[in-house]
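Hey all, quick one. A colleague (J.T.) asked me to put the guanosine-5'-diphosphate job into the tracker so the inputs and the structure tokens live in one place instead of scattered across chat threads. No bug as far as I know, just bookkeeping. Sequence used:
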Amino acid sequence: MARGFDVIVVGAGHAGVEAARAAARMGCSVGLCTLSEATVAHMPCNPAIGGTAKGHLVREIDALGGLMGEAIDATGIQFKLLNRSRGPAVRSPRAQADKRRYGAWVAAALRREAGIAWIFGRVGRLVERGGVVAGVELEAGSGAAAGERLHARAVVVTTGTFLNGLVHVGDRRTPAGRAGEPPSHLLAESLKGLGLSWGRLKTGTPPRLDRRSIDFSRFEKALGDEEPVPFSFLTPTIDRPQIVCHQLHTTEQVHEMVQANIARSPLYNGRIEGIGPRYCPSLEDKVMRFPHHERHHVFLEPEGLDVDEVYVNGCSMSLPAEVQEALVHALPGLEDAVMMRPGYAVEYDFVQPTSLARSYEAREVKGLFLAGQVNGTSGYEEAAGQGIIAGINAARAVAGEDPFVLGRDEAYLGVLADDLTTRGCLEPYRMFTSRAEYRLFLRIDNADLRLTERGREVGLVGDRRWARFENRRSRFERNLRRVSGTTVTLRNGRRARASQALRRPDTMLDELTSGGGLRLEVGSGEEQVDVCSVETHFKYAGYLERQAATIDRGRRMEGRRIPRAFSYAGVPGLSLEIVERLSAVQPETLGQALRVPGVTPAAVALIGAKVGGK
Amino acid sequence: MFATDDTIVAIATPPGPGGIGIVRLSGPRASEIAAAILSGPGNLEPRRATLTHALEPSRQRSIDRVLATYFPRPRSYTGEDVVEISGHGSPVVLRRIVESATAAGARLAEPGEFTFRAFLQGRMDLVQAEAIHDLVTAVTPRQARVAFDQLEGTATAAICAVEDALFNVVARLEASLDFPEEGYHFVDAKAAGVEVAELADRVRRLIASSRQGRLIREGCQVAVAGKPNVGKSSLFNVLCGVQRTIVANTAGTTRDLVTETIHLAGIPVTLVDTAGIRATSDAVEAEGVSRARGAVEAASAVVVVVDRSRVLDQDDRVLLRQTEGRSRLVVANKRDLPTAWSAEEQLEVGSGSPLVETCLIDGSSADTIREALLGLLEGKAPGRDPPAISNARHIGLLTSAETALRRAAAAAEGGATEELLLVDLEEARRALEEVTGKRTPDAVLERIFERFCIGK
Ligand SMILES: Cc1cc2nc3c(=O)[nH]c(=O)nc-3n(C[C@H](O)[C@H](O)[C@H](O)COP(=O)(O)OP(=O)(O)OC[C@H]3O[C@@H](n4cnc5c(N)ncnc54)[C@H](O)[C@@H]3O)c2cc1C
Ligand SMILES: Nc1nc2c(ncn2[C@@H]2O[C@H](COP(=O)(O)OP(=O)(O)O)[C@@H](O)[C@H]2O)c(=O)[nH]1
Ligand SMILES: [Mg+2]
């Protein structure tokens, strides 16, 4: 008899592991199918988690009860809080990871979940009956369970760059999901039969060098923070010793070499059709598109504590291996470096996420969820952020419950889902703080206040996290009352309400607590979060109020639902182009409709008149 | 709101007899309805003027020989299928063609409906749509000029230029936040604040030009005030060029307000002649005086008339004081008679606003007064006018944009960081974009990537 699960997750990358764990924690039996145990939560590119806006995503995943925050706290080797000189809303944590330990940590965490069964093999087909998912079929001859059919009530596909993946190094083209890993053709064809829309993207990675062949004394050091700020609300402190990275620069000579060999780059000779990310330009792009720049930054980042591979951040390229080697040797200080692996570019098929609802469920196939790079995003954090939401929604679908959708005003996770499903991807999508119009509310210090209760409601937040959170929240509320009720002495000797004093740009909370007579409650190991959330609450009160007013105005539009399968062609006055776009995206609310590219406010007003409500 | 899926018809040329007149059909059935009311030959060829006859509904009799042109969508005025039928300009003929079209299934268009459809189909932006309305209803040639400028996008261009400059600042500030480690120096918050303050000034200038635009579009009220018998009614009549109000030697003759609209260099100006303003015990006159005061309050400018052949008294002085600081022209009248004022009194009257000396028993001072009044209404910058923003909605939005910009500039000076400035700058951007009715998601990131080499 065929095996059956509530939920099958295809792929154990960053999206897949979050999805599998979320669904298992919510009580589902989960089958986790993936190609190899060695590549669980693998980092094929930069061995780092976080960064601007990405760090926010990790905090939110953690606040909901996800894995990523704890995983990086446990295996990070250099931590840094970005944007320290700016306000709390845009500070983001980032850390270099020990890439092997990271994957192993995540795999071990999943092995502890009783509800997850591992299946090593290649899924070749999605089984569907009458627009409803029924399970998956493994490819004949692949892995341990060849040809087997697995039943499931929901399937989450998280296959990253594997669908019809094609790796380029110079003229050499190899069908592969990532260098050295075979691609998924059959699954791609099976999914293409389901009426989703598709596109092709490209991404790339730099060469890796042997650390033993590099004289690091020749470079500038790049250090982490002295006091690392953890990602997870559950991590009190990180006191592991931190590693040092190094910085150097490209030279005119390197640029000339790139120009001389540009015809051999598949990016420039037309062999690559997929569209790459502009925010992550290859070395070829940097040189060709910005010829007036004399030099570009390069960072040398070890991939772990006890591995020899060094990542050459800033030099992603797909030139032939021998040209890459020559380029590396032309970099001052790397004359004798040994290249262990060349950089490469990979092209892959992705599903245009406008085919999905904000729950990540395919609109046309009930029970089919897609998350991660297969939806056109790039980045581990973006993948994990989709994975956890898709996992939650797969579990809810199995239980017959409503989708779990976060708003743009609640979380970066909400911005992510809304952007992807209303706008789609013209290039690989990465999160930026500028994508969040309610940025001042979506901070790392209040991610738990925004989301942990939501995570608890859906059944993802365990008792330990919940107890800790409840303490932290009541402490926060008591602290707010304290600040409002205390009169403090300022540096100039004058007395003022603490809440008023904090509104001045130059008055910080620690000044009031250290000499001004204000006392705050802080939890052990939670001082950072406690102080920051209280300070921000008062310091930015004026701005927060104004942003809150905008949110309220927006809610009216967000609250007006457009019925499923609404006929735009039946709305008088809409241009054909707008009808086409809206029919393709099928926004769920008027607010979303307004964000679909090319849709005018006048058009939304017409739809509003037809939809009714106020 | 209008229905937008049917076919509408209306006379597109201004009312009144003219050389030719155009009947316009727009909507999905435009070509079919045209075929039904024209004598042939069958369907019209796109974009080709065809000589044919417009027929009565019975198709028995011809209404007029016409030229008909079919503009298939989307390259038409409204973006829908459009047929334009040019007939001989008599209103009767054109109306009969319209009747024929409605009998064949078209609906009579509401005012502005063609333009509304054009906006919906994305054929024009909001500013242009509003400008067409203004152009069609323009009374004076200068009104038409301003409306035409807007249609051509001069006003849009001026607003877009500010929007674009603002956008550059926003993009650089956003880049600083999202790419803190690139080693790029995009812009620091303080320096951005200075740029923002300059932008606020630019918006201020647009608003100032808009005052002029509004003047042209909506015109203004000018009250003529002064003691009884100084020559107010005479001045009124000289400006209007007709005998509108009674000029009499008995003080207190003009008891009620008399208004007349004149065109001063293309600006519609409503003149209000008032009862003389003075202390009085007569109940009827007192009512006139209080109305006069009201008119003076409400007017956008005041002309104070003083009789220079009489000594300056308390009533003159009170009125001069009360109107101080207003947009005001002082007319020292009866120049033909010997003056009763001392040099100091002459100075006193002339301080704080332009002064002209006149004789109003004939029209000899008319040009002097017109010129002085025009100078007053237009402010200090006559000559080639800057792009005028002439719509109250635009002025409101520009004003909120300016407020938000000033707030950001002040915050930057006070040491606020990028993400806080951006709250106000985004508000300003939204207001500017609302003027032109355009919205561009992701535009900020576009701008960043096109200019900076970002990413490791
Ligand atoms: C060369 C390269 C360069 C990159 N560069 C960057 C960068 O510069 N910046 C950046 O932010 N991100 C970059 N990324 C992207 C980042 O690595 C991914 O976005 C992220 O890892 C995606 O996570 P995921 O969970 O969606 O998929 P992945 O991590 O790719 O996981 C896919 C999983 O699916 C499994 N799988 C595939 N097919 C099947 C099948 N048929 N049956 C069963 N299992 C299957 C695989 O074994 C794997 O476990 C790069 C990726 C690559 C490959
Ligand atoms: N000599 C002379 N008489 C004038 C002049 N302007 C007006 N008057 C006379 O002054 C009297 C009052 O004029 P009127 O316009 O009715 O004054 P009002 O009461 O202010 O409206 C009339 O007899 C006019 O003829 C002027 O410039 N010179
Ligand atoms: Mg009079």
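Adding what we noticed when we looked at it: The domain at 224-378 of chain B is CATH 3.40.50.300 (Rossmann fold). Residues 51 and 67 of chain B are 5 Å apart (CA to CA).
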